[in-house]
Structures are given as C-alpha cells and as structure tokens.
Amino acid sequence: MSLTLKSRITLNDGHSMPIFGLGLYQAESSSKTIQIITDAIKLGYPMIDTAEIYKNESQFGEAVKKGIKREEIFLTTKLFTTEGGCEGCQKSFKNSLEQLATDYVDLYLLHAPQGGHVIEVYKEIVKLQKEGKIRSIGVSNFGVEHLEWLKQAGFVPAVNQIELHPWWQNEDIVNYCRTNNIAIEGYSPLGKSRFLDDPYLIKVSQKYNKTPAQILIRWSLQNGFITIPKTTSGIERLKENMDVFDFKLSDEDMKDIADYGKKNPQNTGWEPTKNGKDKFGPI
Ligand SMILES: NC(=O)c1ccc[n+]([C@@H]2O[C@H](COP(=O)([O-])OP(=O)(O)OC[C@H]3O[C@@H](n4cnc5c(N)ncnc54)[C@H](OP(=O)(O)O)[C@@H]3O)[C@@H](O)[C@H]2O)c1
Predict the structure, then answer these.
(1) Pocket-testing residue among 24, 193, 227, ligand 1, by greatest number of atoms within 8 A of Cβ
(2) Where is this site: Lowers pKa of active site Tyr (predicted)?
C-alpha cells in the first residue's frame, strides 16, 4: 500500500491513528505556536503531539478557540509522571483538557516509566477511557522490561512512543512492540536536527532530490513508525516535512541508511527506556 499524508494505522483497541503529525516539544508558550498549529492544520497535518510538560497545551486550546476543527485532528498529550498516583493523574488530566479546550484526547500517554504507582494510574486512565475522555491509551519511553511488567498486570498499551532515527533504532523495543501489536511512534525523527549535515545523508538526499530531513522522515514512515517531526520556524519547513509522500526509498537504501546509523549509535534525548525497575516503581 502506498503511504499518504492521511494514511492511518489501526491500533490494538480498534481506533485508528495518523502516521504523520507535528511534534511540539520546545514549542514556545506563545502566539507563535498558536500560529504554527493553525498553519499546520490548514496545510493538512492530521495530528498534533503535545504534553503536559511542554507547557504549550493552551496554545492548541487557543487555536481551537480561534476556529480550527478539533474533531478533524488526532490529539495526543502526556502525563509527565505517575508520582501523584490516581489523584495526581486526575488532576493533571483535567488540567490538560482545560488547557487544550477539549473534552477528550485521542491518545493519552504515560510520558515515561517514572514516578511509581504505574499500574494503579494505568487503571485510572482506563476509567477515563470508559468515560469517553480518552480514545486510546499509550505509553512513551517504555523499554521491553517496562512493557512486560505492564503486560503481566493485564495491560497492553495501544502505542509506545520512543526515540527513533537511523542513529538510534531501539531494535529490541521495536521488535517487542511488533510482536505484541503495539503501534510504534518515533520521536525525534530528525535526531533533533543533529544529523542533517551528515555527508552520507546529504548524498542520499541528492540522489532522491529531497532534503536530508525528508529522507529521515521517509525512512521512519517506511519502517512503519508513526512520526512527528517538530518545527516551529515557519510554514516552509512545515511544508518540507510533509512533502514526503511522493517518493519511496529503495529497499537497498533503507537498509544502507540503517546500517550507516548503526555504525555510530547516538540518542539525542533523555532515553528513560534504559531505566530499571527501580524507576518504574511498585506494580
Ligand atoms: N515522549 C518523549 O519523551 C519525547 C521526547 C522528544 C520528543 N518527543 C516528541 O517528538 C517530537 C519530535 O522530536 P524533537 O522535537 O525532539 O526533534 P526532531 O523533530 O527530530 O527535530 C526538531 C529539530 O529539527 C529542526 N527541523 C525541523 N524540520 C527541519 C527541516 N526541514 N530542516 C532543518 N531542520 C529542521 C527543528 O527546528 P525548527 O523548529 O527551528 O524548525 C528542531 O530544531 C517532539 O516535538 C515531541 O512532540 C517526545
């Protein structure tokens, strides 16, 4: 099947999720972000990824108040820590809904396996789902060990959002998610822009007459990763990052890019998947 901007993945709970969207980490709490969200949605971006900790949920809310159609957007937000238990979760979720100016989110993620009380909080989130306030439940930065603990407690999340690009392929987690029917969402698909001037990547981009950023986004998509490149610098980059559906990387180049990244593995973020059980807390 060929990929399009509107392609969706069916999740293990029966809901579907776009394969492409806009990430908002480090997008300012300012009118600039309201504008970027509005521009992205006007251009056809089907999904927005934010989080309690990004402090820009209210910019999405403002865009809704200014007229973007909430029901046409797949909206993800995240609970930063489970340390506040069920009460903390209810409080954070209520605050997120208020900031986002909506009465439901499409996907609610546990941002990382941190804070303890994970199972009781997960159960609380299931209650919110039953009340219709959350469509799908997912996790982020969960390693294989964390996912196994969840599974033992009877929960298989719909999505796991982890850092993914050629230089950080997290293959053990990807394989586990594929085997257990958990959709894989890759964050930092551009490696936070750290690799865009890599000479090998530039060579590949010239071969396809595309930019290095487009090659990396396409590499994620062809791997079956839901991808959410972030840009707040203006409409041109928004357009560039979505202009990845008119070409296909050959199987050989897909493998070469992966092999190239693997030679020099580097993550660009915090990587909590590597935390042990102590960080996950009692289950
Ligand atoms: N769950 C988690 O723990 C977690 C962690 C990290 C990220 N995320 C999510 O994943 C999203 C994406 O990851 P990310 O923000 O870390 O990094 P990223 O998308 O890999 O890279 C973003 C950086 O690349 C630049 N950029 C974007 N498009 C470009 C282009 N076409 N050409 C050149 N530079 C370009 C951006 O600058 P400008 O903005 O100036 O264009 C920004 O500096 C986040 O925004 C967030 O929603 C989740």
Answers:
(1) 193
(2) 78
